[in-house]
Write a structure and sequence with these properties.
single chain, 0% strand, globular
């Protein structure tokens, strides 16, 4: 049942985002940033934990999950380090995912030989 909920929730998030991309003049990058901000906001309101418990990977894999990761990292760092945690928390929490995206993107560029359009 967990797989079904993850598929349905993750698919619904992706479908809603695709509708926004197709029916608005917003650039895709702005929509993606909006998702990260929305994930942070939902986390700040305390709704993300119950949502991710219900939806599993369907809630944590999309960009909403990245926003939650950044918020939780900043919150933890502020509790531990004070004001400097505002600057360190998001970087520490998001470093693994960002590094992986850079490394795998670089590897993919070697495999597929991208060309300018």
């Amino acid at each position: 049942m967990n797989y079904l909920w993850a598929f349905l929730v993750g698919g619904a998030i992706c479908a809603i985002v695709q509708i926004f991309m197709d029916n608005t003049k917003l650039q895709p990058g702005r929509i993606m940033v909006g998702l990260v901000i929305l994930g942070s906001l939902i986390s700040a309101l305390g709704w993300y934990k119950p949502f991710s418990d219900f939806a599993g990977a369907g809630a944590t894999v999309p960009l909403l999950g990245f926003g939650n990761t950044l918020f939780e990292g900043v919150k933890t760092a502020v509790d531990e380090e004070g004001f400097l945690g505002l600057f360190l928390g998001g970087l520490k929490a998001g470093a693994l995912g960002t590094s992986a995206a850079l490394v795998f993107g670089y590897i993919a560029s070697w495999i597929f030989k991208p060309k300018m359009k």
